[in-house]
């Protein structure tokens, strides 16, 4: 028996590689979270600017709480089982009328993890639709292997390497339209991307990227995990991350810097260029 999703939703996720939309909180609660985030962005531009959007849940308590939101976790448990940790998070922000886009890609390509079977909840803190540049998924594409990616390092491409899969049949793409406070789930191997924001408002998404079962290991880079549910991780070479007690405390900032350095080493492993994010 699933805990939160219906059996039909669980089957949809496994068959299609994504599920959307799922209500997590009210629109007004999402607006409050966005206001908190924007206040933190103004107060700490050096820590939360466009080149520093990885793993903000390790320094902002309201994002940490979102990473432990029971609706998010019950939905994750329904697709992964009861024993999982969080690998990282990314704030995917597109400014109004901007050119930034995300090329077609599969997340698992450069994650350096021992399994590709993991899930990313993407939570909308502002409207995510065709005008603001929502994510689009190629249904069922998670069932084929990882396709070759070209590292384009495109200036307007917000992925680390601007990595892109060629020859995607875009006629199959499904747009994931989310109201603030809703989330989607996607599989580590699904082909997905997003278009520029043509609207007059920001498009702000918080991707909990990703929750993996506790037996998944970092093959490239250091094993650094935030235990979430179940038995946790026992291996002696695992760094168990701690949750922030106070936003932007010196300890949490130092921990996030360590984790982001490891993240960068993993995501740029073997790359010919390294960008500042
Ligand atoms: O936010 C976007 O437009 C893309 C996000 C994405 O690629 C992801 O969460 O895996």
Judging from the principal axes of the Cα atoms, what is the shape?
globular
pLDDT averaged residue by residue: 96
Based on secondary structure, the structural category is alpha+beta
Rg from alpha-carbon coordinates: 17 Å
Low-pLDDT ranges: none
Q: Give a list of the ligands.
A: 2-oxoglutaric acid
Q: Topology of this structure?
A:
Blueprint: H1 7-16, E1 18-23, H2 27-43, H3 45-48, H4 61-67, H5 70-80, E2 84-86, E3 90-94, E4 102-106, E5 119-124, E6 135-137, E7 149-151, E8 163-165, E9 174-175, E10 182-187, E11 191-194, E12 203-207, E13 211-213, E14 223-229, E15 238-240, H6 250-267
Parallel strand pairs: 14-15
Antiparallel strand pairs: 1-10, 2-13, 2-14, 3-12, 4-11, 5-10, 5-12, 6-9, 6-11, 7-8
Bound molecules: 2-oxoglutaric acid.
Written overview of the protein:
The longest helix has 18 residues, at 250-267. A five-stranded antiparallel sheet has the order 1-10-5-12-3. It has one domain (7-267): q2cbj1_9rhob like domain (Jelly Rolls, Sandwich), CATH 2.60.120.620. By secondary structure, the chain is of the alpha+beta class. The chain has helices at 7-16, 27-43, 45-48, 61-67, 70-80, 250-267, and strands at residues 18-23, 84-86, 90-94, 102-106, 119-124, 135-137, 149-151, 163-165, 174-175, 182-187, 191-194, 203-207, 211-213, 223-229, 238-240. The structure holds 2-oxoglutaric acid. 2-oxoglutaric acid (AKG) binds at residues 92, 102, 107, 120, 122, 135, 192, 194, 205, 207, 209.
């Amino acid at each position: 028996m699933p805990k939160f999703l219906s059996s039909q939703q669980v089957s949809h996720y496994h068959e299609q590689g994504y599920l959307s939309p799922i209500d997590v909180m009210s629109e007004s609660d999402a607006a409050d979270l966005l206001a908190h985030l924007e206040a933190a962005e103004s107060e700490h531009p050096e820590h939360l600017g466009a080149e520093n959007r990885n793993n903000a849940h390790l320094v902002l308590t309201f994002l940490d709480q979102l990473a432990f939101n029971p609706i998010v976790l019950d939905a994750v448990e329904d697709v992964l089982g009861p024993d999982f940790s969080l690998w990282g998070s990314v704030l995917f922000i597109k400014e109004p009328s901007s050119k930034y886009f995300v090329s077609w890609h599969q997340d698992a390509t450069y994650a350096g993890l021992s399994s590709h079977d993991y899930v990313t909840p993407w939570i909308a803190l502002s409207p995510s639709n065709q005008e603001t540049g929502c994510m689009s998924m190629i249904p069922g594409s998670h069932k084929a292997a990882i396709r070759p990616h070209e590292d384009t390092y495109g200036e307007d491409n917000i992925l680390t390497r601007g990595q892109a899969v060629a020859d995607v049949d875009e006629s199959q793409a499904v747009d994931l339209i989310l109201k603030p406070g809703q989330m989607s789930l996607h599989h580590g191997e699904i082909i997905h991307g997003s278009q520029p924001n043509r609207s007059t408002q920001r498009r702000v998404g918080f991707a909990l990227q990703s929750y993996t079962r506790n037996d998944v290991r970092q093959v490239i880079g250091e094993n650094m995990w935030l235990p979430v549910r179940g038995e946790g991780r026992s291996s002696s070479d695992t760094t168990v991350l701690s949750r922030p007690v106070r936003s932007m405390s010196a300890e949490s900032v130092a921990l996030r810097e360590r984790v982001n350095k490891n993240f960068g080493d993993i995501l740029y492993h073997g790359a010919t260029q390294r960008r500042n994010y």
